[in-house]
Design goal:
It contains one helix and eight strands, in the order αββββββββ. By secondary structure, it is mainly beta. A hairpin with a 2-residue loop joins strand 7 (96-106) and strand 8 (109-119). The radius of gyration is 16 Å and the shape is flat.
């Protein structure tokens, strides 16, 4: 993870992000998706020992040649849990690279995750 000068390599960011106490994830299953309507589940994973009383999850889907789609959810999250937030329908009409941005923000929590998906 560190080079010979003890500087972080590229994989360092991925490792530290994966070990954060709270993460937001999307069940995309693949790095590619067909043109059309595709279902995607969004989860909040908390390894905290305390409850997250109030946080807002913002989601933004950008697909080539289309206006962005946005969703949000505000609620509480139990300690040491995986919470399914939603099953969104990601619509694609054109080939290219799409992106899904997730951000969970609350008084003591901030988690971000971004996905790039090839639409074919």
């Amino acid at each position: 993870m560190l080079d010979h000068r003890r500087k972080p390599k590229k994989a360092w960011d991925a490792l530290t992000a994966a070990n954060r106490p709270v993460i937001v994830v999307a069940d995309l299953h693949k790095d590619e998706m067909p043109i059309g309507t595709n279902k995607c589940a969004i989860h909040v994973v908390s390894d905290l020992r305390t409850r997250i009383d109030r946080a807002t999850l913002s989601m933004e889907w950008r697909s080539p040649g289309m206006d962005p789609q946005r969703w949000s959810f505000t609620g509480a999250f139990e300690p040491d849990s995986v919470t399914k937030i939603s099953e969104n329908f990601l619509v694609t009409k054109n080939p290219g690279i799409a992106s899904l941005a997730l951000e969970l923000r609350g008084p003591d929590v901030h988690a971000i995750n971004n996905y790039q998906i090839k639409v074919c």
